[in-house]
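Input sequence (304 aa), recorded before submission:
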Amino acid sequence: MKNKEILNFKLLLLCFLFSVLYFNSDAQHVKKPVQIGLIADPQYAEKEVSGSRYYRKSLLKLDTAVSVFNKASLDFSVVMGDFVDQGIKDLPAVMSRLEKLKSPVYGLLGNHDYVDAPDKDSLFLQFRMPSSYYKWDVGNWTFIILNTNELSKYASTEGTAAFEDWNRLNTNLKNQERKNAAPWNGGISTAQLSWLQKQLAEAEAASRDIIIFTHHPLFPENGFEALNNREILAVMEKHPHIRAVISGHHHEGNFAQYKGIPMITLEGMIETESQNAYGIMRLFSDRIEIEGNGRLTSRILKFE
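Predicted structure, token format:
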């Protein structure tokens, strides 16, 4: 082999080795997506079937979801409220299923969780939550739990400031002939709204992307939305780092965009005898992917 050919061969070999090292190094720096298990409205109860709601079947459905989640190496799971149908008397059976998850589980309260609650202000403790609304961070993401039951007839005590605030809000909605002025809906207080503004500002100052979880949907307006959804949305629309709002409550599921923010309502697990409803959400730097199982809708949402 001539000297020139040897030199060319060496150069090609060096280029090949460099490309291998470069791409392997680059691959190591590709961040894995944050993976989240999603469950909405198990609404378990030891009671007979009512319409399309098979209350007892929710335990078996939870077992299936937990088994799938444990095989997926999730970062955590979120239950979108209504763990139970008739309050905490049936909660131990649900929690015993969720305890089998290998990764953390976060929850938020739903309207059915308040049934016959002995202490509504500290009910969140029964569900092993740090507060009725709270946040946490994973990687470059901030996750916010809102308590959309705070202003409601079922979650407040007559004579308290919260009850009076709910009464004024509900009366105004009835005067406007809004469909969401219903006994199963609730809203958030001005204190919680201020807290939300603070969390959004802090997350964006740190260049974090944001996911918000609520029990009552915020949009579209179809009678299932939170009582003061418009005030909440007015705050959210100012924060472009909000990548999605994930909700439960409306068991049929739904989807809409509000000024560029995807509003996802998950299908309720309680519905139907044999079809389950749960999913895995994966968060990438440029998109959200939801892999639905059973009735839960799969989606790919690319960031603008």
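Checked by second reader. DSSP finds seven helices and twelve strands in the chain.
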